[in-house]
Design brief:
Layout: E1 22-27, H1 31-42, H2 44-51, E2 55-61, H3 65-72, E3 77-79, H4 82-86, E4 93-96, H5 103-113, E5 117-120, H6 123-140, E6 144-145, H7 156-163, E7 169-175, H8 178-190, H9 194-203, H10 212-215, H11 218-232, E8 242-243, H12 251-259, E9 262-273, E10 276-287, E11 299-306, E12 310-317, H13 321-336, H14 343-346, E13 369-377, H15 384-393, E14 398-403, E15 413-418, E16 421-422, H16 423-434, E17 444-448
Amino acid sequence: MYRDPVESLEPLHSRPALNRTLRVGMIGIGTVGSGTFRVLVRNQADIAARAGRAIELVIVAARNLARAAGIVGEGVALTADPMQVAAHPDVDVVVEVAGGTGPARDWVLAAIAHGKHVVTANKALLAVHGAEIFAAARKQGVAVAYEGAVAVSIPIVKALREGLAANRIEWVAGIINGTTNFILSKMRDEGLDFAAALAQAQALGYAEADPSFDIEGIDAAHKLSLLAANAFGMPLRFADVQVEGITALQGLDVACAEQLGYRIKLLGVARRQASGVELRVQPALVPATHLMAQVNGSMNAVMVKSDAAGLTMYYGAGAGSEQTASAVIADLVDVARLDGVNAAQHVPHLGVHEHATNALAVLPRAAVHTSHYLRVPVRAVSQIQAVTARLAEQKVPVRQVALAAERPGVGPQVLVLTGPVAQGTLDLAVHALQARSEVAGVVATLCVELLEG
């Protein structure tokens, strides 16, 4: 039933060096892998025309060979051993879409060691092991492409590397996790609390049974580390990303933000400062009239501020089989065009400055300057002035003060929007405010991102 994965493939050296078919080996044939195969087959003529040659899937590694055979048919060799794909002499490029960070690292490094290009949609793998993988690829002169690892259907890596290549990037900010954006949209549109919105996301398939990577902000942090490396030419610094998820977010704050003219989004922000780079994933208030505030459901968006192009924004699906396949195949087309070209130049690898003495530092949390939203529960409405006075004592600039609209079972709440202030200063101010007798509960704080040019 199966073609033998080694014996039956025509040796590449017997084919013409130019314009021959790009032969692909795939590790994993789940949601992304099956979507990639479908799109390759369905759009093969258009893809070949754009790539300058045909792209053919010739071998797949899968746990369940019978299921894999049902997807790819008899024209593709199958194996249960991913290393057989990584080392196959008649494979030009290995597509890794199995996921994970342990075995996947070994497969990818083995493929590189055998002189094969790699395409992956595995952001966790690159965030954790990217420096090692990219260094190995540069040494071997092969490309590692990963458009599908960052924002699924949005070609943001290509935009940063090619479309904005002339620019000095000042900041990148994005909604880069579809699950959390769906949850936040439901909390705002339907007045749900976090638990109810998460349950709805799970029921509809937007969230996994264990959604920790999404709701705790880890998935977004993986992607942000890749965006920052592309934007600023810095090493991958996933371990230094300041990460705050949405699990502690209350529906009351979603409603209060709306009252003030803002919406809450989980944002990944990478911003260049004179003393270093901010790397943050956290729920933040965005003006309701801003384009980023209109990104709802499971959609993603990335905004880039650069010196020449100014503000640019990129929008698209944040999840999906064929949506991710679109990015994977775009990377394959890039690889297909590499004949006679230095792979590292055509599809640049990250971390080119990892050994530079002037490598950009990541700013500590306390040094980050942003505006903030505070919700301060008070014992009486008359204590609003006491709250602003305490903030002034702590050198926190107050830009706007309001009382939250009355809600059943909720005491008076003072809402404060600050001007830009160091996070360390704000933390001290909130600590001092929390100790005051007029404060009747926990002070809630969120960043405010205006995302202006």
